[in-house]
Each structure stands twice: as C-alpha cells, then as structure tokens.
Amino acid sequence: MSLRPLTPNEARVLGTLMEKARTVPDSYPLTLNTLLTGCNQKTSRDPLMNLVEAEAQDALDSLRLLSLVFETSGSRVPRYEHNFQRVVGVPEQSAVLLGLLMLRGPQTAGELRINSERWYRFADISSVDAFLEELQERSEDKGGPLVVKLPRAPGAREQRWAHLLCGAVDLSASTAPVEHAGVPLDDTRRLEARLRALEDEVGTLRSALQNVLEQLGMSQPGHPK
Known about the structure:
By secondary structure, this protein is mostly helical. It has 2 domains: 79 residues, Arc Repressor Mutant, subunit A; 99 residues, Winged helix-like DNA-binding domain superfamily/Winged helix DNA-binding domain (Arc Repressor Mutant, subunit A). It has 8 helices and 5 strands. A 3-stranded antiparallel sheet has the order 1-3-2. Strands 4-5 form a two-stranded antiparallel ribbon. A hairpin with a 6-residue loop joins strand 2 and strand 3. It starts with 7 loop residues before the first helix and ends in a 10-residue tail after the last helix.
C-alpha cells in the first residue's frame, strides 16, 4: 500500500507504539500519557523531541485516518495500538527495522542488529542486510522503496540506512561524524549503540512504572498528580 509521507511527529508516535508493543507488552496498548513519555524520552531517540499532549493527539488522530493506529475500548482511559504491518504489508523483521530507523535515525546494519535486540533477534548482520535490501528494492505496485542506503561517510567502513516513510532523503546532506579520541568511527558507533540499548532498558522500566502508577491513580515522585 502506498502512503502519504508521514510528518516527523507522526513518525515518532508510530515508532514509539511499535517499540513499546515489543518491549513492554504488559503496558500495551498505551495511554496518551505513556505514549507521550515514550516519544519524548532522552535515550534511544534521534532527534530528541519535546512533543506536547496536543501534538501527540493530533498525530494519533491523523494516523488513525491512515488506519496505522487504532484506539482500543474497554479501558478507563483511551489506549492506542499500531497497525503498521497490516497496512504497509511488510514482515515482522522489516517492521522492526523501519521502527528503529523512525526512532533513532540513520544507522548501519550492525547498529540496527544491536539496537533490535529487545525487539527481534536477527541471526547475523547479513540477515539484517537482506531485509534492508528487500525494503530498498520494493516494487512500485507495493508502494515503492521504504529505505535508502546513504553514501558512505568519510572515515566509516559501513554505510548507513535511512527510512523513506517521511519522504525522500537528501543524500547530499550526509556529513562526516567526528571520531572520538582516535577511536575508529565504526567502533565508536558500536559502543554508542550498546550504550543506547542499556539506556533504552532504563527508559522502558520508567515507562512501565508510569503505567502502573497511572492504573493506581498515583504520580511519579516529583510529578503532580
């Protein structure tokens, strides 16, 4: 299915729902407050965002019109879940890669494999590459390519991938990241990816705690009820 390009806010909301469905299934579907916390978390996000409730709700409403999001019933407060795979028509592995690219920006196949550990365990990097190439070569009758391989940055051994769900990517905008204290660029990225994975676990625990507190009618310390 061919979709219109998503806005950055829509991509962040959709990616967050896709992430939490896999990492905190006991808290899923998400309330608006829990979703907003996930969208604005300071770890595992690139770029960082600071959405307000109205912006998140607008994104949810527009995603519902595209059938990418549903509101569930039977709860005290509205809860939301994504419908990405069915609408876009991609397998689980491809959906995981697209969700990670929406949340964390361009990444190499190696970074995607590390960052996907809590979503889906790929056997090896070649498996990640195979699904990325399939997404890049997606036929027009299925909606066209959903990812693009970016030009190799100076000093990097691997090329990064970017999603196309928000429209075409400016390939000329790729700049060389700075190496850290003489550490090779790809090694630095792998270390950063590991750190982000640990930070993501902390963010997930905080999200789960907030969900429990919401159900109990309580607030986190330092936050008004």
